[in-house]
Please model this.
Amino acid sequence: MKAIVCTRYGPPEFLQLKEVETPTPTRDEVRIKIFATAVTASESLVRGLRFPFRYRLLIRLLFGFKAPRRPILGMVLAGEIDALGRNVTAFEVGDPVFGMSQRVFGTYAQYICWPANGVLTKRPANLSFEEAAALPYGGLLALYFVRKAGIKSGQRVLVYGASGAIGTAAVQVIRHLGAQVTGVCSTANLKLVESLGAGAVIDYTREDFTRRPERYDVIFDAVGRRKSARALVDAQRALTPGGKVTSVDDSFPRPVPADLVVLKELAESGALKPVIDRTYPLEEMVEAHRYVDGGHKKGNVVITVEHDSKT
Model:
């Protein structure tokens, strides 16, 4: 099968298209024929080893010293069940599925084997494979942090970084819960964030939200302190009494299968729509990573995976 292999840490050019062995599922696994995946910010960071210097040794120990121990990156997918382990009863061959795995990379490929009880479920009936691949990363992380912050109906919530993969999902989930959402993004993305349900949008290139009169029950940093630290220095003064600031860097969420089902239901109801900035074929993975490295993507960058008649 075809796969993108990360030969060493560094720039996108270290991602190479290669022929590798097609995996065989164990008794509790399913093999998935992948039709779409996505390049997430997390994979970009791992590939480039773009972490603070004090963490790089730890990252090398966890992922591999000179190159990722699992050289095929990628954590989200949409595809169909291609083969079943003998113990698997939850799926059938041909089932359209989507999902995410933080523990096992490998979705930059034509096939992958995953545990049948992992974060994997039937694809939303109203979405294409490309759209479904754009849901899990931002959607699952947004859902986790929205719950962690205890956001509920009637609250005023500001989402900083509202145009990224996590931010676009968070705006929609928070709006679905009945809270009032203010999105912070760049000039180019104001209309996008407004279209997702934000009641107000603030252009961070022109205005400091902490100097406005509005106060928020929750400020959610959806991009991480590597990018937001300077902008959020004075965030406390934009809070209501008892309000809180929460960031995607505050904890390391572990998505669960039940949350993926929630995303599926939200998507099928129309409450959550995937946002796709650009789509690249698997063969143009280097260009896709180069674009994500730029830090200005809107929503998700999706990768399509083609199969010839022999695969």
Summary: The first strand starts at residue 2 and ends at 6. The chain has a mean pLDDT of 93. The chain is about 25% helix and 25% strand. Residues 136-148 form the longest helix (13 residues).
